[in-house]
Amino acid sequence: MTDVGSETHPQAHDIVLLGRVAQYCLAIMSCAAAVIHFAVAAEHVQQYWLFGMSMLAVAWLQAIWAIVAIVRPSRRLLYGGAVLNGVVLVGYLITRTTWYAIGVAPRDAGLSAPLAVISVAAEAVVVAGCAWLLTDWVEQHVRRQRLIAVPAATGAMTAVVLGIALAAAVPSAPAASAASAPTTGAGAGTGSMAGMRMPSAAAEAIRLPNNTEAGDITIPDPNMEMMVGMRMASSTPCTATPTAAQQRAAVSFVNTSWAGAKKYQSLAVAKAAGYRPITPVGAPVVHYLNPAYYQATLDGGPVLNTTDPQSLVYANTPQGAVLVAAMYIGALDGPTPQPGGCLTQWHVHTNLCLTGTLDVVGGVGPGQPTCPPGSVNRVTPPMIHVWFVPIPGGPTAIDGSDQQVVQAAELVLPLRPHNGTA
Question: Which among 20, 271, 290, 336 is least surrounded, fewest beta carbons within 10 Å?
Answer without folding.
Answer: 271
